[in-house]
Design brief:
By secondary structure, this protein is mainly β. The protein is about 15% helix and about 40% strand. The longest helix has 27 residues.
Length: about 220
């Protein structure tokens, strides 16, 4: 602890006395600032607030992320029509782009919100997405977006190279009686530039053509339209 005392300079000349007093004032200001900075980050028990685990914000989905993976996309919405926030996670293998010979699959997780807070794992699929190298020769990222609306979600893929580009979208709808998500629509859109002419090609599959395909059974590579 600092010992702050002001001394009287009776024996010094007036000029030196003033200088001595100014030095003491600056020293007092310095000590005050130091004491304030030391106590600012301490609570009543003397522990640093920055180190207090109670002030840390826990990630509610961290428990669902396997070792070696990280979140690429995280979306929130009401998937199962219970008015609670649900989540879709797309998990990427850490350093996956360094492995070009055999890129690891991406994991897609559907998490349902629970009334007590947090989430529970509902569905998982390691075949619902393209790997990072499937966007085309130009190195395009094939995962364009994941969208959630009340009771359904969609997976949007895209890619291309040179004069050719493509989009491939999948839509899944929640089925309350079974508690599952079924594929109800597949839409493919392709463009190719031939000389100066843009050629477009669209294909759409509905539930009638698709049949019964649940999210757990779904594989994106089966729909190269």
């Amino acid at each position: 602890m600092y010992d702050v005392r002001f001394t009287v300079c009776e024996s010094l000349p007036i000029k030196n006395c003033r200088l001595h007093f100014v030095v003491q004032i600056w020293f007092f200001i310095f000590v005050t600032v130091e004491l304030f900075s030391c106590t600012e980050t301490e609570n009543k028990s003397g522990h640093s607030l920055l180190a207090n685990p109670k002030t840390a914000i826990e990630n509610p989905v961290k428990q669902f992320i396997p070792t070696g993976y990280e979140i690429l996309i995280e979306k929130t919405g009401d998937l199962n029509l219970d008015s609670l926030p649900d989540k879709i996670l797309v998990l990427d293998s850490i350093g996956e782009r360094e492995n070009y010979s055999q890129p690891p699959k991406r994991i897609m997780l559907l998490l349902f919100g629970i009334e007590s807070g947090g989430f529970t794992r509902a569905f998982e699929n390691s075949n619902a997405l393209y790997t990072h190298d499937m966007g085309g020769a130009g190195g395009f990222e094939p995962l364009s977006d994941i969208k959630i609306d009340t009771g359904y979600f969609s997976i949007e893929l895209a890619g291309g190279w040179g004069r050719f580009n493509w989009e491939l979208n999948f839509m899944f709808l929640y089925d309350p009686p079974t508690g599952k998500f079924n594929l109800i629509k597949v839409h493919s859109y392709k463009t190719a530039l031939q000389d100066t002419t843009l050629v477009e090609d669209q294909t759409e599959l509905t539930l009638k053509e698709i049949g019964k395909v649940s999210f757990e059974e779904f594989s994106a590579v089966n729909y190269d339209l």
